[in-house]
Amino acid sequence: MMADVNRTGPLVEYERRISDGELMTGDICQISALRELQRLHDELVESVDTCRLDRYNTSDKFSRSRWFWSRLMPQSSYSPVNGLYLYGGVGTGKTMLMDLFFDQLPCTWKKQRIHFHDFMLSVHSRLQKHKGLSDPLEVVAQEIAHDAILLCLDEFMVTDVADALILNRLFGHLFSNGVILVATSNRNPDKLYEGGLQRDLFLPFISSLKERCVVHEIGSSVDYRKLTSAEQGFYFIGKDLSTLLKQKFQELIGDNVIARPQEVEVVMGRKLQVPLGANGCAYFPFEELCDRPLGAADYFGLFKKFHTLALEGIPVFGLHNRTAAYRFVTLVDVMYENRARLSCTAEASPQELLEKIVTISEAKSMAPRTSSRSRKNDVTELCVDNELGFAKDRTISRLTEMNSKEYLEQHAISQNL
């Protein structure tokens, strides 16, 4: 344990939780990442004035004036402290470590912790608001920097070409406004947006990211999310289980409650039709959520109003329904971020739902079948997609955790159920 009892920070808090039995015995890989987070924590505390982190500090009382004049006369002010980019596989505890770091920082600091999906939705919404200006991206960056000098982005993953094409300029402006980035991701920075459209225009962002952030890989032989105990009665495997799921849905909303179609406002005036909803619970056939042109914005809007989703008929994913697989991965990410509850029927277990999705390297390493007919069938059934392949393990892990006793108990506590 740390000798200085007055010292604070993520590593100090982590060791306290282990000592109190709240966490398992320290994972050496997590401790290595925590040392980096503790180092950054200490640097920020020492440089709080220089970095303009404290929103109530008298030295920052003219910040609004400075922000106004910077819109008229742009000026660079890079932070003396570099950020941190943590990456690693599924279940290594990245989100937990990010939360531990963020929660140990003073609440008076200009800081924000947000999921990358949600952050980019906010950026695009702000861009719409400033449409018509000569450089709306610069204004958006100044607005973000005014509210949050320390920007913590969880699950940094670039799959959308619209995001990819603005990230370099956006973060160029953010960094020149003194913003410090802390990010978690499943991908090495050099592998971000790999194989994406017009990736050559995205590559300068990777260089900028590595220049402004310390890059640290976190590994672990343990998927902590799979250590939870399974809870029966929320994930039903099989076909034609609509009646069973509707019975479960009725239990969740209350025996005497009648569910009715509802409408949810999602983003920029758009509305999402909910087939059935009551008491914070929504019921959807899979096709209505994942076979329609919906995205993260729609899902975030849905879970601002509902805390539980009953989803009927999740299929096995492959080449024939690749787009639906992308939407399903996004849906699970948004649900997990919002700590929402899932009750569903599916054709197979979480592992089997996504076993036909593979990365390019996985496809190359697969041993060919002796029969040419078998080999042809294997190839036609496989979906070779790097982004989906990398997201697969995270989705399986999250679905497993979301069906655990511990997750469902936390959900019940948070919703006062």
What is the CATH homology-level superfamily of the largest domain? P-loop containing nucleotide triphosphate hydrolases
Number of domains: 2
Unreliable stretches covering 5 or more consecutive residues: 369-377
Work out the helix count. 17
Structural class: alpha/beta
Mean pLDDT: 86
Estimate what percentage of residues fall within beta strands: 15-25%
Listing every helix as H and every strand as E from the N terminus to the C terminus, the arrangement reads HHHEHEHHEHEHEEHEEEHHEHEHEHHEHH
Which CATH class of the largest domain? Alpha Beta
Q: How many strands, which pairing sense, and closed or not: the largest β-sheet?
A: 6 strands, mixed
Radius of gyration: 23 Å
Give the total of beta strands: 13
CATH topology of the largest domain: Rossmann fold
- Overall outline: globular
Gap between N and C termini, in Å?
38 Å
Largest sheet, spatial ordering of strands: 6-11-10-9-8-7
CATH architecture of the largest domain: 3-Layer(aba) Sandwich
Family: Belongs to the AFG1 ATPase family.
Keywords: ATP-binding, Nucleotide-binding
GO cellular component, one term: mitochondrion
Organism: Capsella rubella
